[in-house]
Amino acid sequence: MRERQHWYESIIDAIPLPLSVTDSDMRWTFVNKVVEDLLGKKRPDIMGMECHNWGANICRTENCGVACLRRGQTRSMFHQWSRDFTVDTHYLLNLTGQRIGHVEVVQDVSEQKALGDLMAKITSYSKLLVNNAATLSNASQHISSTGDQVSVETSSISAGMEELAQTITALASAAEEVSANLQGVSAALEQTSRSIESIAENARHGTDLAARANQLAEQASGIMGELGSAAAETGTVTEIIKGVASQTNLLALNATIEAARASEMGKGFAVVAGEVKNLANQSGRSADDIVTRISGMQEISSKAVNAIGDVNGVIATVAEAMAHINEAISQQRAATGEVAGNLQQASQGSSESAENITQASSAIQEMSASIHKINDAARGNAEALRSVNGSVKEMSRIAGELDAIIRTHTKQA
Fold first, then answer.
1. Is 197 exposed, middle or buried, given 0-12, 13-18 or 19+ CB atoms closer than 10 A?
2. Domain PAS, which positions (predicted)?
3. β-strand 83-93 against 99-108: which pairing, if any?
4. I want to staple 18 with a disulfide (CB 3.0 to 4.6 A). Which of 106, 137, 182, 307 is the partner?
5. H or E segment at 270?
6. Using the 8-state DSSP alphabet, how is residue 17 labeled?
């Protein structure tokens, strides 16, 4: 019997793992050789001791192997002395199947755990590497596509710059033409201003001459009125002379008759002679009066002639002033036509300038849009490059950690 016990103990002692058996009160009833070596005590000295004398950090805690078994968990783990251990705990049964104790097998799984951790890290880092590789690929594609877009937009900007240069050249030409037309307008306006001043001066002179002519015409009208009065008075005198002549004729007839009767009535001649003398005196006075009035009429007529001459002179001067005015008006008309032509050309040049400015504005807007697109692409590239840089750094860090883990594991192995 003892031989068989020794035989079983030898078998258990050959197990290279710590193995202990406790009763229901968690007191040791058996330990193998490995446990003796770990505790530094012989098996007889250990029997009956409570198992917490292991001194493990899970003793007397809910992570104790027996406590875990009683909760239905046959395997538990703990970390101590910089090592990792697993505890496999099972019930010890008698022949009737009754639970009479516990069997605990402790195993140092530090290498296995380290290897598992290493594999987990390698797997995790592999996923990170795959993700970072995908990020790099996406960033590369994005940079490539934005590069193509930037190339297209750059070509668009180049074409826009050429169009803008042509538009600016046309705009400068139109501006020079407008400037020349405006200078022509300025010169024509100066000439028009001088013409207007000349017209105003001649108009003022013409007004003065017209006033003078009106005054002279009034004087001539007055003189002609006096001449008309003198002519009327002369007509009166002429009527008197006609009456005198008629009476003289009558007297002559009477004288002829009296001459025929002279033999009978000689005295009648004396009476006729007296009447003829009176008529003759009256005719003389009328003749003197006529001479006086004719002289007055001659003087008035001379005045009228002089006044009419003055009026003619004034009219000639007015005609000359009107000729100057007409000439100035013609010059003004020509200058106005030149101003209108220059203004029309300037307006046309301004329209062309406005059209060129519109084209330049459109070209600038298109270039601005292209620049915005390039800016957006540059920002996208910058973000992609930052992502690439971050991915590269992360991959470098992962590679370093993997190298360190592998080196550590190699040294431990």
1. exposed
2. 4-48
3. antiparallel
4. 106
5. helix 267-412
6. S
The one-letter code for the residue type at 99 is: R
Name the H helices within 40-109. 43-46, 65-70
Q: How many residues does the chain have?
A: 413
List Cβ<8 Å contacts ≥24 apart for 168-174. Answer: 168/356, 168/360, 170/352, 170/356, 171/353, 171/356, 171/357, 171/360, 174/349, 174/350, 174/352, 174/353, 174/356
Q: What is the mean pLDDT of the chain?
A: 73
* Cβ proximity of 107 and 86 under 8 Å: yes
133: closest CA among 403, 341, 392, 397? 392
Report pLDDT digits (tens) over 8-31. Answer: 899 999 999 999 999 999 999 999
Say if residue 314's pLDDT is above 60.
no
Q: In the predicted model, is pLDDT for residue 278 greater than 70?
A: yes
Cα–Cα dist 389/381, whole Å: 12
Whether the per-residue pLDDT at 114 is higher than 80: the answer is no
Domain contains 126: no
Total domains, the chain = 2
Question: Which tokens hold the place of 368?
Answer: 């601005």
- Please answer whether residues 20 and 107 qualify as being in contact, where contact means their C-beta atoms are separated by less than 8 angstroms: no
Residue 94 vs residue 251, higher pLDDT: 94
Cβ partners under 8 Å of residue 244, min gap 6: 279, 282, 283, 286
36/175 same-domain check = no
Same domain, 171 and 86: no
- Predicted local distance difference test score (pLDDT) of residue 162: 73
Do residue 60 and residue 207 come from a single domain?
no
Helix axes 110-260, 267-412, angle to 10 degrees: 180
Examine residue 131 and state whether it is found in any structural domain, yes or no. Answer: no
Tell me how many degrees the CA angle 32-37-39 measures, rounded to the nearest 5. 95
Cα–Cα dist 386/394, whole Å: 12
Q: Average pLDDT, stretch 360-385?
A: 66
User: Which residues lie below 8 Å from residue 53, measured CB to CB, with a gap of 6+?
Assistant: 39, 46
